[in-house]
C-alpha cells in the first residue's frame, strides 16, 4: 500500500470534568473525519493486515503499545475504505464474499480506531502526564457499548457507526453474520489477527458464528450455577432463533440452547450439548476497554 501522509481532524467541544475519574461527555459522539486528498480509491487490506498481525494475538487480545505504534498504518487503511466500498465502487464488489470481507474488515478497523480515539480523549480529559516513553496498558473503564457503537465515522462514502454496520450485516447477510462481526467489546466476536479474505461468504459466517459460541471468554457457560450467560449481541435474536427452530423442526417448547444446537458443529456443539437444561440469561454489558498509560 502506498505511503500515506494525512491530517485527521476530530471534532470536539469543551466539556466539564468532575472528579478524578472523568466521564465521557456528549462531545464523544461528535463525528470523526478523515482527510482523503490525493488518495486513489482501491480495494487493498494490506494496511489492516499489517496492523492486525502486529497488534492482535490469535485469541483476539489487543496489544496496546503495538496498536498505538501502528496508528498511522491503520489511518491509511481507513482512508482507502472511505473512498472504496460496495456503495461507492460497486464494480469492485460484485459478489457476497467481497462485500462481507469489506464490512468485516471495516468493523475491525473502525473498532480499533475508535478505541484509540476514545482512549486519547480520556487521557486528554484526565490531564494525564505522559512521559517520553510511556508504558501502555488496557483498562476496562471505558465508554458504554451504546456510546462506543454510536460514534459516527466515514466509510464507503457515507457516515456510519458500528451499530449501523451491524444492521447492514443483519439485513444483507443474516443475524449470524452480525453476531460473528469483530469488535473490541469484550462480549463481541474477537478481532482477528489478520484481515478477512474469504472466497465464500457462507463459510466465513459459519466459522465466525461457531467460533463465537465456542469462545469461553465471550459465551460463558457457568457450570456451578448451571447458567449460560448469553452476550447481548446474541440475546437480541434469541426469540427469533427459537421461533425459527420451532418452525423448521415442528417442535414446541424449545429454549435457546436447543435452538442453537443445529447451527453449530464439533466443539461448540459439544459445549451446548453439555449445557442442555441450563438457564439462559442475558450477560450484563461490559464497558469498552481503552488504552491508558500505566501510572504505577
Question: What does this entry show, briefly?
Answer:
Helices cover 42% and strands 10% of the residues. The protein is mainly α and 296 residues long. Mean pLDDT is 89; it is low at 1-28.
- Chain oligomer state: single chain
Radius of gyration: 20 Å
The portion of residues assigned to helices is 40-55%
Secondary-structure-based class equals mainly alpha
The coarse overall form would be: globular
Distance from N terminus to C terminus (CA atoms, Å) equals 39 Å
Q: Encode the helix/strand succession as letters.
A: EEHHHHEHEEHHHEEHHHHEE
* Percentage of residues in strands: 5-15%
Mean pLDDT: 89
Number of strands: 9
Number of helices: 12
Q: How many strands, which pairing sense, and closed or not: the largest β-sheet?
A: 3 strands, mixed
> pLDDT below 50 for ≥5 consecutive residues: which ranges?
1-28
In spatial order, strands of the major sheet run 6-7-8
Amino acid at each position: 500500500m502506498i505511503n500515506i501522509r494525512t491530517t485527521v481532524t476530530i471534532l470536539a467541544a469543551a466539556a466539564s470534568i468532575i472528579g478524578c475519574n472523568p466521564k465521557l461527555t456528549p462531545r464523544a459522539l461528535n463525528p470523526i473525519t478523515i482527510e482523503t486528498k490525493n488518495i486513489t480509491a482501491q480495494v487493498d487490506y494490506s494496511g489492516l493486515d499489517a496492523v492486525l498481525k502486529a497488534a492482535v494475538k490469535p485469541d483476539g487480545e489487543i496489544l496496546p503499545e503495538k496498536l498505538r505504534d501502528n496508528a498511522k498504518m491503520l489511518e491509511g487503511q481507513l482512508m482507502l475504505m472511505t473512498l472504496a466500498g460496495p456503495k461507492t465502487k460497486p464494480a469492485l464488489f460484485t459478489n457476497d464474499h467481497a462485500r462481507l470481507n469489506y464490512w468485516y474488515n471495516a468493523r475491525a478497523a473502525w473498532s480499533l480506531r475508535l478505541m484509540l480515539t476514545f482512549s486519547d480523549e480520556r487521557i486528554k480529559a484526565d490531564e494525564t502526564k505522559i512521559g517520553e516513553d510511556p508504558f501502555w496498558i488496557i483498562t476496562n473503564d471505558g465508554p458504554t457499548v451504546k456510546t462506543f457503537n454510536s460514534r459516527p465515522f466515514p466509510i464507503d462514502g457515507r457516515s456510519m457507526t458500528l451499530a449501523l454496520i451491524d444492521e447492514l450485516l443483519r439485513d444483507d447477510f443474516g443475524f449470524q453474520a452480525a453476531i460473528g462481526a469483530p469488535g473490541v467489546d469484550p462480549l463481541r466476536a474477537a478481532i482477528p489477527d489478520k484481515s478477512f479474505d474469504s472466497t465464500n461468504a457462507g463459510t466465513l459466517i459459519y466459522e465466525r458464528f461457531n467460533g463465537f459460541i465456542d469462545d469461553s471468554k465471550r459465551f460463558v457457560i457457568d457450570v456451578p450455577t448451571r447458567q449460560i450467560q448469553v452476550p447481548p449481541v446474541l440475546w437480541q435474536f434469541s426469540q427469533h432463533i427459537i421461533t425459527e427452530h420451532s418452525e423448521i423442526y415442528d417442535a414446541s417448547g424449545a429454549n435457546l440452547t436447543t435452538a442453537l444446537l443445529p447451527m453449530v458443529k464439533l466443539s461448540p456443539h459439544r459445549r451446548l450439548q453439555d449445557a442442555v437444561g441450563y438457564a439462559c440469561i442475558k450477560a450484563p454489558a461490559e464497558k469498552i476497554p481503552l488504552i491508558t498509560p500505566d501510572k504505577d
